[in-house]
Write a structure and sequence with these properties.
The chain has 328 residues and is α/β, with parallel strands linked by helices. Helices cover 43% and strands 19% of the residues. It contains ten helices and ten strands. A five-stranded mixed β-sheet has the order 3-2-1-4-5, with helices on both faces. Strands 8-7-6-9-10 form a five-stranded mixed β-sheet, sandwiched between helices. Helix 9 links the parallel strand 9 (258-262) and strand 10. Helix 4 crosses helix 10, helix 5 crosses helix 6 and helix 5 packs parallel to helix 7 (210-222). The longest helix is centred in the last third of the chain and has 27 residues, at 228-254. The structure holds adenosine-5'-triphosphate and fe (iii) ion. Adenosine-5'-triphosphate binds next to helix 4, helix 5 and helix 6. Residues 111, 115, 136, 296 line the site of fe (iii) ion.
Length: 328
């Protein structure tokens, strides 16, 4: 059997077919970078309109590509939150209609659980208990996952997420969207010559990235001679040092078997390397998503849906813009 995953929580329209082992039979993701680039962020009304245009073609394409009919589907899994309400509604109402038309059960899925399960795609195995760090565009949090289903939040950000600060710094340095990969590339070419603050590095599990971003803004004004490459390298070094310190603290205090790093920023080669070192030092397995599936996609949503089936938990198809990590 296959699960059809549908993801429309933010600015990516995505559908995927995933089997129980995590093999992705087909996936199609349409991004909206060009639509939102000039606004400096996602413009909600335009996002829902773009989802509406893309969603049925995207689903049709994955079904065709995998040669699958509705009869081959075990379930449909669709993101119910967190996310933009208008964007969520497009995926949810599409899933509801298909569920009724095809006679296939539909499950409302927590997008954050989707990110966490992205490490299981294409055969990735996670031993529990695990410490999970989710570093994405909308979230920066660290949690303990005891049995693949139960999450305990350890800490989150007081202000900006890491991904958001990557995107804002990218803008300051004149890079286009998406900002993360552009910063990574520039950082690789530069040297961390500037000592930026490491906000809250030595304090518990909370994060704060808006001060770091402001500090970059100040330096861009007062030291225009610093190259974008060196500025990027300095910024990335500060971010990663904070993230690695928090992960290390959780490994010491929670003594997990695995360290799971997910979300868009988990595509960063610098972060992957830093976390590999931390995991190695503490003798735990490092679980990372395939780079292409670190950012939003429907394969991770389909993967997470298998857990809901196993648990017999079937959340409804009502959008939950602020759905917390601990909820299904
Ligand atoms: P959330 O899941 O919290 O609702 P989101 O779904 O919008 O937020 P993701 O798609 O998981 O977030 O991640 C997007 C973020 O990841 C962006 O801020 C982007 O800059 C960042 N990102 C993407 N690729 C990279 C990379 N290679 N290095 C660093 N950051 C990256
Ligand atoms: Fe996401």
């Amino acid at each position: 059997g296959l699960i059809l995953g549908i993801e429309t929580s933010c600015d990516d329209t995505s559908a995927a077919l995933v089997d129980r082992s995590g093999h992705v039979a087909a996936i199609r993701t349409v991004s909206q970078f060009e639509i939102h680039d000039s606004f400096g962020g996602v413009y909600p009304e335009l996002a829902s309109r773009a989802h509406l245009e893309a969603i049925l073609p995207v689903i049709g394409e994955v079904m065709d590509e995998a040669g699958v009919t509705p009869r081959d589907l075990t379930a449909i899994g669709v993101t119910r939150g967190p996310g933009l309400i208008g964007s969520l509604l497009v995926g949810l109402s599409t899933a509801e209609a298909l569920s009724m038309g095809w006679g296939v059960p539909a499950y409302g899925v927590n997008h954050l659980r989707g990110h966490i399960r992205s490490v299981a795609l294409e055969g990735g195995v996670t031993d529990h208990p695990a410490v999970v760090m989710l570093v994405s565009g909308g979230h920066t949090l660290i949690a303990e996952v005891t049995d693949a289903w139960t999450c305990r939040l350890l800490g989150t950000t007081r202000d900006d997420s890491v991904g958001e600060s990557y995107d804002k710094v990218a803008r300051m340095l004149g890079f286009g969207m998406p900002g993360g990969p552009a910063i990574d590339r520039a950082a690789k070419a530069g040297t961390a010559t500037l000592r930026l603050p490491r906000p809250m590095k030595n304090e518990g599990y909370e994060f704060s990235f808006s001060g770091l971003k402001s500090s970059v803004a100040r330096h861009v004004e007062t030291h225009p001679e610093i190259s974008p490459e060196d500025m990027s390298a300095s910024f990335v070094a500060a971010c990663i040092e904070v993230l690695a310190a928090k992960a290390e603290r959780a490994l010491v205090e929670c003594r997990p078997k695995s360290l799971v790093i997910v979300g868009g920023v988990a595509a960063s080669p610098q972060l992957r390397a830093a976390m590999a070192e931390v995991a190695d030092r503490h003798g735990v397995a490092l679980c990372l998503p395939p780079v292409t599936w670190a950012t939003d996609n429907a394969a991770m949503i389909a993967m997470a849906t298998w857990d809901y089936l196993d648990r017999g938990v079937q959340p409804d198809l009502v959008p939950k813009p602020n759905l917390p990590l601990e909820m299904p």
